[in-house]
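#struct-help
A.M.: can someone run this one for me? Single chain, 197 residues.
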Amino acid sequence: MKVYGLTGSIGMGKSAVAAMFRREGVPVFDADAQVHLLQGPGGPLLPAIEARFPGTTGPAGVDRAKLGAAVFGDPHERKALEAIVHPAVRAERTRFLRRHRSRKFVILDIPLLFETGGQKGLEGVIVVTAPAWKQRRRVLARPGMTAGKFRQIVRLQVPDAEKRARADHIIHTGTTFADTRAQVRRLVACLGGKTGR
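D.P.: on it. Structure tokens below:
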């Protein structure tokens, strides 16, 4: 089984592309969705997060606004949160890989793949990209998003041009939905047809 990473900066359309891969029958591990489950109502990480960041959890799980305020822009606090979350996500990913070990290939959807060195050990990296103006328009349309917050997020991410330069495969979403889906289908056919080195 070959393992590919899927990544892209905020607002590039990575979630839509991941859904397209799933519709083509490719198993996709969504790191973000896993974090939501681990931190959601009754989530196994709630006690550790509450102990480290008091007042940031409740019956509905993590209060993302409060936790975000506690760690955003503070590298030390962000590292403390990552030390709680990352090992749990890695354990879930290991279970996912074991469950799908008979498949030709699977995809790990990892938003901060290059930022965390997550590309190591992967067969290849798929980067989702779009023009900067379209990225900005998509992100600023999100509830609670501001131009300042958008700039801050982009500063923390590896630039899109660098991601594209380091990619093994690129999916462009600045085009039509049908064209993006056609790109995904071509890539599935290509990756599914690859044999061992």
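A.M.: thanks! The domain at 2-193 is CATH 3.40.50.300 (Rossmann fold).
D.P.: also worth noting: The longest helix spans residues 75-99.
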